[in-house]
Task: structure prediction
Amino acid sequence: MLQTNTAAMPTNNAGAAIPQLGLGTWQLRGELCATIVSEALRLGYTHVDTAQGYANEEAVGEGLRTSGVGRERVFVTTKVQPQQMGDGDLQRSVTGSLKKLGIGQIDLLLLHWPNPAIPLADSIRALNEVKRRGLVRHLGLSNFTTWLLDEAWRLTTEPFAAEQIEFHPYIEQGKMVSALRRHGMSIIAYCPIALGRVIGDPVIEAIAAAHNRSAAQVTLRWIVQRGLVAIPRTSKIERLAQNLAVFDFSLTDAEMASMSALTRPGSRLVNEPQWVPEWD
Ligand SMILES: NC(=O)c1ccc[n+]([C@@H]2O[C@H](COP(=O)([O-])OP(=O)(O)OC[C@H]3O[C@@H](n4cnc5c(N)ncnc54)[C@H](OP(=O)(O)O)[C@@H]3O)[C@@H](O)[C@H]2O)c1
Result:
């Protein structure tokens, strides 16, 4: 196992200990997905991110089992599809996710996208119920704007531990980050290496060269050093170790600032046409 420190876990008001580096699995399917998950866990990853919409919960479950790593050592996140967010449908979908994953409890369950066709109060009631029934340990959100976030808090009796947002050096998310911090939530950065676009960026490559690291590594370091959680995805076994090895070096304040200065308009990468809210 690699010498890494994924035990660095941001705290949040819900008391969830979320490992700061996780494995993304969007677009990974079948045997490749199972193999990547299994290899990642053997290497020392302790956090895996999936979703009902990725159609890979069974493969993720197979990877969990074949890794030989104890269930208690892995933090598993899945997300409820927007179509399943009605009261009744949500509970049934969570039972389905547990079955596909082959586990007894989900560590973190997120609403994947806001769905204006279903009253948010119904979704939140259903979320609270699956937590009370012990099907999930912690609740969270994904792609909720600051307004929807406040609305979700107003409707819930159980706390939200985290929200997943698109976060990389190019996207401006200051308003969202402040709102999530105000609510005491962990922030999970998706598309942390901007779908690979950080590779070849002159500013990032220069910082990477100064540390004898890759552009992916310094970008992930920039995220975890800011106290966020990053969930990079790779389909290449040989990149798994690289993406995990971001806890044994640090960036200077000047390097952090020059990466933070890379934000530019129009850099949002994930815009699910059917579900996008009016972004902040
Ligand atoms: N909540 C949401 O709505 C939402 C939305 C999007 C994503 N997510 C989650 O966040 C995870 C991460 O986001 P993402 O998958 O969209 O994008 P990402 O992790 O930013 O980028 C993945 C891309 O980067 C490449 N890559 C990975 N490591 C690399 C390295 N060391 N060097 C060079 N290239 C590298 C991968 O190619 P190879 O496969 O060739 O390595 C892949 O094409 C997802 O997998 C998913 O679990 C959530």
